[in-house]
Model the fold of this input.
Amino acid sequence: MRAMVVRLGLVPVPVLACFLVAAAAAAGDQPQWGQRFTRNMVSDEKGLPDTFDPVTRKNIKWTVKLGTQSYSTPIVAGGKVFIGTNNDRLRDPKHKDDCGVLLCLDENDGKLCWQLVVPKREGDQYLDWPRTGWCSPATVEGDRVYTVTNRGEVVCLDINGQANGNDGPYMDEGKHMAVKGQPPHEVNPTDADILWLFDMVTGAGIYTHDGAHSSILLDGPFLYLNTGNGVDNTHRKIRCPDAPSLIVLDKATGKLLAQDDEHIGPNIVHAAWSSPAMGEVNGQKLVFFGGGNGVCYAFEALKAAPSDGQVAKLKRVWSFDCDPTAPKENIHRFQGNRKEGPSIIIGMPVFRDNRVYVVDTGDIWWGRPLAWLKCIDATKTGDITKSGEVWSYALAGQSMSTPALADGLAYITDCGRKIHCVDAGTGKVCWTHDVKGPIWSSPLVADGKVYVGSEGNEFVILAAGKEKKVLCSVMLDSAISGTATAANGVLYISTMNTLYAVRKTE
Done:
């Protein structure tokens, strides 16, 4: 499997019990992946379940069948749930091809509101791997939905889809949904309404690899996102080494405003799949970015759009090489070498209390089965490789995980089939837990519990804290690559085939 990424009926109860459960829950949307800005995998939701059973329907609010490969994380906002998948389960007979699909579902019952169906990129299959589907999660603000398609396009969508008309200025949805060379599709009320579109391939000069994956970070009028620029079909060459890895767009128009100037391209191990985070250090707003070269960066956040109309260069504040002893030249000669080679950052950095927590890993498919959770002092400047490390914790295998920081503890997962709980101040391990299958998803900490799904179809719930306590282990219908999401008292779990809405009712 070459897909990247961070791949993934109500039970009757007395009315009074329903009221008490609802009152206990912290009613809140989850409009982006992780906490706003910091990317911490922690939710303030309360009253969440510590057990559920899809067979007996215990604590199951509703389920929805997805496609056959679903690597995206569910996002919940404005009464709707957004999840990416593929087109193997048709919802509209006009779409019969292999496509990426973003589903917009009703939060109450899971019924389809609308979908955005995007054909695969033409030519080399490594640009958009067959049947991988839609990997990027959505980011929602008000009535606008921002996401990245399987073709590497950044799109701004109307949260209501075509149900309230085609708002524009983009008006070519019918053509966009059709495979190249075929006539435009008729646009229906259950289709998406694209407001603007920025193609990173033509607009930023990047080449996607396997599957475009980005979780857009929204800051005022700006959208920050990784580009997904990556290797070619030989895995030994970067198609466009001069292309940026991190860009900034105008959220109103999709115009490219700024990009990094770090020349990361030649040393990208696989692709620029890590999404950015943000935080304030010493009164200065910084953007934290994990490079495809295994280096973590901090940039000054953009204060205003460039007045000269040119694309600005993001100013680097510091850089931290997570694996300084690894090879730095001609790195692709190590492809397939499981003992020696470079590192990559795939999960997102997390900012908390003037520290950045990030996972540095050997490439999942081609590299060493090694990874470390790094804690970096974010108050320093310059090249802080030697001075910035607070601590380093070795994991049991490669990792695409984003950490969860809560109550002085850091939770992280890896492909060595382990969940780790370590002291966030010292990096000392508190406990580990083995699961069935590698873990591609990140842990979610909410309501005093740790929620984790694995590629072995197992979903586990543990008590958060220094002492390990397993509350529940459930075998689901297929592999789990997306991170669980908590919103409005409900836990959302996506497997390859199904989206589960789980609510505590007993």
